[in-house]
Amino acid sequence: MDARQFDRVVDRMQSDSAQWDGAPAIFGTSDILPMWVADMDFEVAAPITEAIVKRAGHGVYGYTFEGDSLKQAVIDRLRTKFGWHVDRSWLVFSTGIVHALHMIIRAFTSPGDGVILQPPVYYPFFSAIRNNGCKIIENPLIERNGTYGIDFAGLERAFKPDDSGLRPEPSRARLMLLCSPHNPVGRVWTREELERTARIVIDHDAVLVSDEIHAELLFCGHTHTATATLGEDIARRTITCFSPSKTFNLAGLKASVLIIPDPRIRAVFKERTAGFLSTPNVYGLTAMEAAFRHGDPWLRELRTYLEGNRSLLVEFCRTRLEPITVCPPQGTYLAWLDCRRLKLSDRELRAFMRRTAKVGLDDGYVFGSGGSGFQRLNFACPRSKLERALEQIESALKTL
Ligand SMILES: Cc1ncc(COP(=O)(O)O)c(C=O)c1O
Prior knowledge:
This protein has 2 domains: 3-45 and 296-397, Aspartate Aminotransferase, domain 1; 60-294, Aspartate Aminotransferase, domain 2 (3-Layer(aba) Sandwich). It contains 13 helices and 15 strands. The protein starts with 22 loop residues before the first helix and ends with a helix. The mean pLDDT is 96. It is of the alpha/beta class. The structure holds pyridoxal-5'-phosphate. Residues 38, 96-98, 122, 179, 183, 211, 213, 243, 245, 251, 256 line the site of pyridoxal-5'-phosphate.
């Protein structure tokens, strides 16, 4: 096995793929190279397919539950990858993180409560808050020369009750959604940044939701710190969202796990989401265990390949996509292209990428404040596809 396996182009059309089959509806044209939704164009690790095929061969697909062997695989993974010693009772399985985020907000807020997020950020964070009748409290990231940081003074302020007089009741932030590593800007938060964040959450007696779905997709030189490993006091108020779906390309199998160390928070969560939360399906559970137990050789090669794609992208931008710039992401397989110097409105930029360059990217503005003038590009694809997309953007730039 080597990284060149990822050069292979897999035809994903007619596989009910959101990325490919869904693109014409999303982008309004079928003549588009899709580089948007965060899944990979790669075939998964062979042991995962083998485990699914074996399970399919059993021929009985009754109700599922999470067995001890799967739970042990999760526990072993968190210990070996992040030095986190997790008790079996802390694990709560769910059918995807977005669904879980909705359920968490539902469980720990009342309509009108504030929930903090740090834009530009993964856009379903916004709808999860809004759909629960809560108020979005933004603490925008600070951008300096293309790299992003947390505005800690802003975070302190965000936790203070809203006494603007605009609302009848001051809305207090009870929850904070942390994206770690951060989609779309690709930051891997340092231990120190996480410690400062944790301190503020503790001081304001809030609950922290730490979405760590990208935790295992890091580039050389960066290390993920699981927020809950920073200390007892933050662990007690953190719900960590974890999943093999980004790392091992299993998003369609809808299997994820929440780690909730505090018994009271866990009990409240289970009680208030009873009937709304279900166990992952039989293939999701099977794939999760196989990925965590046997996926590492594949993952090592994947990281090497993504590192190569990232270098290509950064160099291409630097030499051939002027004035578009990109700061090399520290983690994730998403590039946050700064197109502001094109001086196009968001509508024009969208039309430029879709109609002129014919590439399907995510518009930056959907990620909230600070996203205007940016485009998010998914580079988890065979290099030939990435080259083609960049060349299409290069040609389109000549028309401006
Ligand atoms: C930060 C983050 N959380 C959650 C998800 C989606 O998770 P799921 O497919 O398990 O709902 C994504 C997908 O891109 C993501 O980037």
